[in-house]
Amino acid sequence: MQISKYIISIIVLSILIISCSGEVTVPVPKPRMYPRVDFPNREYQAYNSPDCNYSFEYPKYANVIQDKYQFGDQSVNECWFNLEFSNLNASLHCDYTSIDKEKFGSLMQDAFKIVSKHNIKANFREESIIQNEQNVGGLLFSIKGPVATPYQFYLSDTTEHFFRASLYFNSRVNPDSMKIIHDFIKTDIDHMIKTFSWTYL
């Protein structure tokens, strides 16, 4: 009787060992999925304004919206506007100022101050010198990380004209999911800069 109990115990123990020796399936979380983005076909059109001293090309899928503030329907400057990428939920805020040499230094410092406000969240910042075939010069700031504006730039001839722009998104910033959109709009910004020229009266 004692032997049969011993045999039964061995059999039960063997079954337990065999059942535990198989592969253990560990649940693995699914990779995070991001919504699909349907990018429009690239086509550009000219921006020319009789009231402003510059011209450039911008995408046909973007809209130029006159920048309006609290002063009724009057904008602070008639040459300030937003380039709205509504299908990508983004806006390129643009402003222009007539300057002299003294004012150029002040506006350039302001441009650096505005960019520096994003240093707290930025992983790093890259600065690229701009010089296109129309002799328009300036500086492009690429700001990496969970920042509100990944690209900012200014253009100037240092004596008469100063143009500044910042790209903003109307949604929570997630660098991983937004990179493909950043890259797409960056190509449009590069084209805008490449075709930018001053109009001298």
Lateral strand order in the biggest sheet:
3-4-5-9-8-7-6
CA-atom Rg in angstroms: 29 Å
Average of pLDDT: 82
Q: How would you spell out the order of helices and strands?
A: HEEEEEHEEEEHE
The number of strands is: 10
Main attributes?
201 residues; 3 helices; 27% helix; alpha+beta
Describe this protein's structure:
The chain is an alpha+beta fold and 201 residues long. It has one domain: Protein Transport Mog1p, Chain A (3-Layer(aba) Sandwich), CATH 3.40.1000. The protein contains three helices and ten strands. The chain has helices at residues 2-20, 101-116, 175-194, and strands at 44-48, 54-59, 63-66, 81-85, 90-98, 124-131, 137-144, 151-156, 161-169, 197-198. The strands form two sheets. A seven-stranded antiparallel beta sheet has the order 3-4-5-9-8-7-6, sandwiched between helices. Strands 1-2-10 form a three-stranded antiparallel beta sheet. A hairpin with a 5-residue loop joins strand 6 and strand 7 (137-144). The model has no long low-confidence stretch (mean pLDDT 82).
